[in-house]
Amino acid sequence: MLSFTTKGIPKKEQFEYWGALFNQRGIRLALDTQQPRGFYGELKSAVQDDVVLSHIICSENKVIRNKSHIAMDDNLFFLLYIPLNDQVLLKSGDNLLKLSPGEVGLLNTEYQMETYLGSRNILSVRIPQTRLPHIDRSQAVLVNPCRDLASQLLFKRLFALFDQVLSSPSEVFKLKFDQVLTDMVTALFCSTTGKSSRGKAFILAQTQMLIEQHAQEALTVKLICEKLRISEVYLYKCLAYFNTSYRSLVSIHRTRQAARLMVNSSAQTKLQEIAIEVGFSNQSHFSTAFSAQFSLSPKRFRQRFSASIP
Question: Which helix (H) or strand (E) holds 104?
Fold first, then answer.
C-alpha cells in the first residue's frame, strides 16, 4: 500500500510534488505547468502488476491531456473514474459529458481531453489498454451508470474491492485485484445491447432522468407515464427488460445522493438526518438499501471514503 499526503508541504511546492509523484509512478498527471493550480491533498494507492487502484482527495483542479502528453506515454491506458462527492465534466473535442457522483466512467487516454473537477473525492483505476482488448476504443469516454441488475452486482463488488484493498495493506497482493478489476471493467463496458432493446433503453434513461429531476416531489409511475406518453404496462415491461423496477430506480437514486452527502457533510451530521433528507422514511430501510447498492454499510462507507481536504 502506498499512501501520500501534502500536509506539511508548502503550497508553492505542492504542484511540483504531485506532478513528480504521479509521473514517476507512470500515471502521467497532465497538469498545466504554466498556471499551476492547487492540486494538493491525500492519495491512497495500491499497485499490482500494471494496474493502479487509487483513492484521491484533493482540491479543485483542471487536468488537460493533449497530443504531447499522449506522445510521452509508452503505453496507452484506460482510466476508470467513480466520483464520490461532486460531478466531473469531461470535454473531448466538441463533446461535453457529465459524470455524476456514483456513476462509473471509463476514459480512453489516446484522446485529447480536458477534465474539470470540483472538490475532488474520487476512486480511480488505471488499466493498460492491452488488458482490455474487448472495450470499444472509438469513443473518448464511456459512461455506465450501473443501474441495471447485472451492473449493480459488479458495482457492489467494485466498491467492496476498493474498501478491502485500501483498508488492508498486508492483503493487497493476496487479493489479485488486477485481474478482478480487469474482468469487472470488461463486463461493465463491453456492450451487448442489440437493436431490439434500444427503444427500451431510451425509456429507462428517460425514467431515470425524471426521477432525478423530480427527486423532491411526489413523483409516481402514473405521472412518469403521462410525461413519456406511454402506458404503465409498457413502462413496467421496459424496466423488467433490464431486470429493474421503478422502486429500485428510486432507491438507487436516493442512496447515491446519500453517498454524496456523506462525503461532503461533517461528521456531526447524523446518518439518520441524511436518510430523511434524501427521502427514506426510516434508518433501517436506508441502511438496507445503501448496503445493497454499495456493498458497504452507511457507517463504513463514510469511514472509508469521507475525508476533509487539507
Answer: strand 104-108
Do 233 and 272 lie in a common domain?
yes
Q: Could you tell me the CATH number of the domain that includes residue 157? A: 2.60.120.10
Burial zone of 96 (CB within 10 Å; 0-12 exposed, 13-18 middle, 19+ buried): exposed
Look up the domain containing 232 and give its range: 195-305
Is 310 within the bounds of a domain?
Answer: no
Whether residue 120 has pLDDT greater than 50: yes
Cα–Cα dist 21/2, whole Å: 11
Q: Does residue 248 sit in the same domain as residue 262?
A: yes
Q: Residue ranges of the alpha helices (H) in the chain?
A: 11-24, 67-72, 149-167, 172-175, 177-189, 198-213, 221-228, 232-241, 246-264, 271-278, 283-294, 298-305
Q: How many angstroms separate the CA atoms of 34 and 184, rounded?
A: 38
The 10s digit of each residue's pLDDT in 194-224 is: 445 557 777 887 888 888 888 777 788 999 9
Q: Facing residues of 42 across strands?
A: 5, 57
Using CA of residue 166, residue 257, residue 193, residue 295, what is the dihedral sign? positive
Name which residue leads in pLDDT, 4 or 259.
259
On average, the pLDDT of the chain sits at: 76
Number of domains in the chain: 2
Does residue 36 surpass a pLDDT of 50?
no
Asked if 212 and 233 sit in the same domain, the reply is yes
Reference 250, options 289, 193, 287; nearest CA is 289
